[in-house]
Structures are given as structure tokens and as C-alpha cells.
Amino acid sequence: MQTLQNVLTHGRTLPNALADSVAALQDSRDRALCQELCYGVLRWHSRLEALVLNLLEQRPRNRDRDLTLLLELGLYQLLYTQIPPHAAVSATVDTARALGKSWAAGWINAVLRRFQRERASRLQAVDLDCATRHAMPPWLLGWLGTDWPADWPSLVQASNARAPLTVRVNRRRCDRDAWLAQLGAVSLTGTHLTELPQAVILSRALPVTELPGFADGEVSVQDAAAQFAAMLLALQPKQRVLDACAAPGGKTAHILEHTEVALTALDIDARRLARVAENLARLGLQANLLVGDATDPASWWDGLAFDRILVDAPCSGTGVIRRHPDIKWLRRPADLPALTVTQQRLLNQLWPLLSSGGRLIYATCSVLRAENDAVIESFLQRHEDALVRAPDIPLGRALQFGHQILPGERDMDGFYYACLEKD
Ligand SMILES: C[S@@+](CC[C@H](N)C(=O)[O-])C[C@H]1O[C@@H](n2cnc3c(N)ncnc32)[C@H](O)[C@@H]1O
Fold first, then answer.
1. Which CATH number among 3.10.420.10, 2.40.128.600, 1.10.940.10, 1.20.1250.20 corresponds to the domain 2-136?
2. Which residues are catalytically annotated?
């Protein structure tokens, strides 16, 4: 409950809010359940909220808003989990008591029982509204519909599905098939993707520390769509490479596993950059780590040009909602203009650092044209020495300038890539 309130009322991100709650739980099964319920309620929040309001005869008083959320938690279990209904109802009632609201126990019980009796008609009523049916903020659904007139239904469906655990096998430490052969010992199976030599989609999620060889750097968690970045850079040994928005270091590590290059990993956020250091240490890799603002190279650049630059720009995250359902409720329409200004500035300011004949990869985990092709279009209008190349990605769809993978395609996250070369 506290976790959900911290996200929905206080604007904290789900991983951040969840870390506190999960740390307080001793049993790993309780931790898994807490995680499942929090992710699930946030995945379906606006649909569950509409159901609660439909079931209540009157809106609860402001000071009882926690009970509305508690009802969402109960309804989530009844609608979307295998938890036996009687257990879901009694756990929800018990939580009301634990919140010091014993007076509400009978009321919570009655509302949930009413839902069980009238489930079909209640769902039909709230699902008349398209945004509610898909548990999407109306503004976001509108944008997705505009940018993806034919694909938005499958895009939204994939965004509301659970994401698989996908890993990247470290080719410096371990052969992919040898790693796959170890999975039976932990009752897992894995499917490797033909388009990406190191990517494996696992049959179920488990704590990363239980992955075979994790502590020894044989494997890292990374969605398959994100693994195209290192490929698209077309790296050659000893090249000078800048990873300009590096933290927490998924792509930094992949670049270094892929080819021995002289890599500078830059991020504006010192705490997030510390995670790059941790990841590289586990994998036995080295980079020059810098805290700095990529839009202000004068403050950190040594003046030597880079052969390759990766700009994995901060973005709306609309391609990774299936992994971060809190994005739906934390993002605001007004965030987009500020993000696109930053994205433009990153490209404009980093372009002079690229050597002639060098390559820059621009990436986002967004599905919105404003953050993707529109950013590249505007960049190209102002840089005559920039050539746009079609990214060599054997799935997804080619756009006018870049390439889009939509969430769910081959069970991947949504990702956008554009490839720019300097004349
Ligand atoms: C999408 S994340 C990068 C993910 C990372 N490339 C990976 O694969 O793990 C965007 C990162 O950009 C950083 N960032 C945002 N604005 C920046 C700026 N002006 N200069 C450098 N880093 C910035 C954020 O702190 C964040 O870590």
C-alpha cells in the first residue's frame, strides 16, 4: 500500500518506492508477491480505479483515499491473479484493519463480494471508455494513436503485458550455448534470438543473483532491443568511443564485451554512474568514467575526437512501459517538450566531437515520433555534414530516418535507433 501511495501520490518511481518495502520483508516469497502486486496494480491502475468508483455508491472522503487504493489491490487479485478469491478478499480486509481502519473491514468485504457477483456488468460499464479499458492515460493513448494509427492496439496490449527476463551473455567470459546448457540446473530454459548472438530470453523471472555465472560476469540483464546499440556502432578495436548517457551501463558493458575500444562513459548523474562502475567491475571491464553534462562538452572533453558516439538519450520511456508501468502515471504531457529540447541539445553539442568519417548512434526507448524521427529530422536540417544511414536491424520497421522496434515485437522492448555519419 505504502509503495503504491509513494508512486501515485508522491511521484516516486516504482523501483525506488519498492526497494524500501521489499527490504523490510524477510521471506523471498513475500518479496515476490509484493512486487507482483505493486507492478500489477500500476499496470492496470486507471481501469481498477474506474471499477472502484463504479462499485462505490459515493466517492470516498479524501482521508480515505487509501481505501480506494486498497480496493484496487483487492480487485487486481480477483481479476488478474490466480490467488483464490476468498484469500484475496480476506487479505484485503485484513489490510484495512492493519491500516487502523477496522470500521471499513465489512465495507471492503461487501464491495469486493459485489464485484464478484456483478463482475461482467461492472467491467462492461467501465470498459466503454477506451483509455480506461487499456489502462492508459487518455493523452498518451491519443499520442500513440496519432503516431501509430494501425499499430496502437497491439502496442498498447504489449505495453500492458509482463516483460520477460532477457539477458546478454558476456562473450568474453562464456560461450552462449555453454551458458544455455547450465540453465537446466536452475529449472530454466532460454531461447536465443537469431538476430542477436548474445541475447537469451528466459522462460521465467528470477532474482539476477540466481542466474548461473552472474557473480562471475558471465551474464547481464538487458532487453534484446537494447542489444542492437553495440552492433550498430560497427566498432573496430582501439577506436575512441563515447557513451554519452551511460548509466546504469548496460550498453557501456556491451560495447566493451563486444570490442576492445577506448571507451569514455559519461553521465550527468554521479549516483547512477556509480552503478556503471559496479557493473564493469563485475564483468571485469574498464572504461574512463566521467560525471558530466553531455550538452556542455567544454566542461569535460579533452579535445580528442571520438570515432563512435552513442547517445542513448533520456526520453519518455514509452517503449518500456511493460517493464515500468509507473511511467503511465508519472509522466505528464508537458514533459515531452523539455525532453525533446534535451535530445536536440545532446545531438547538437556532441556532433562536433565526432571525427570525420565517424558514426553516431542516437537511441531512445520511446515510441513517440517527437523524440525519434522528428529529432533527427530537425538535426539534419541544421547539419549539412551529417549523413543518415538506415540502421541494419532485421526486424521492426524502417522509418523515414531511423528504425523503430515496437514493444512486444519478438518479445522485445520498444526502441528507436538512428545512425548518423559525418562527411
Ligand atoms: C536512457 S538512460 C541511459 C541508459 C544506459 N545507456 C544503459 O544502457 O544502461 C539516460 C541517461 O542519460 C543521463 N543523462 C540525462 N541528461 C544527461 C546529460 N545532459 N548529460 C549526460 N547524461 C545525461 C541520465 O542520467 C540517464 O542515466
1. 1.10.940.10
2. 365
50-107: pLDDT as tens digits: 999 999 977 778 788 899 999 999 999 999 999 999 999 999 999 999 999 999 999 9
Assigned superfamily of 225-422: Vaccinia Virus protein VP39 (3.40.50.150)
The tens digit of pLDDT for each residue in 270-324 reads: 999 999 999 999 999 999 999 999 999 999 999 999 999 999 999 999 999 999 9
- Structural domain boundaries of the chain? 2-136, 166-221, 225-422
Residues 1 and 96: beta-carbon distance below 8 Å: no
Q: Is the CB of 267 under 6 A from ligand 1?
A: yes
User: pTM of the full predicted structure?
Assistant: 0.96
Nearest atom, ligand 1, residue 345 CA? 19
Distance from C-alpha of 161 to C-alpha of 198, rounded to nearest angstrom: 24
Cis peptide before 248 (omega within 30 of 0): yes
**Shortest CA distance to 13 belongs to which of 272, 204, 244?**
272
295 lines ligand 1 (CB under 6 A): yes
Of the residues 233, 252, 267, which should be mutated to test ligand 1's pocket, given the most ligand atoms within 8 Å of the CB?
267
d(CA 213, CA 170) in angstroms, rounded, equals 10
Report whether residue 294 contacts ligand 1, using a CB cutoff of 6 Å. Answer: yes
Is there a contact between 331 and 140 (Cβ–Cβ < 8 Å)? yes
Report the separation in Å between the CA atom of 342 and the middle of ligand 1, taken as the mean of its atom positions: 11
Q: Ligand 1 pocket, 291 CB below 6 A?
A: no
- Residue 36: pLDDT band with limits 50, 70, 90: very high
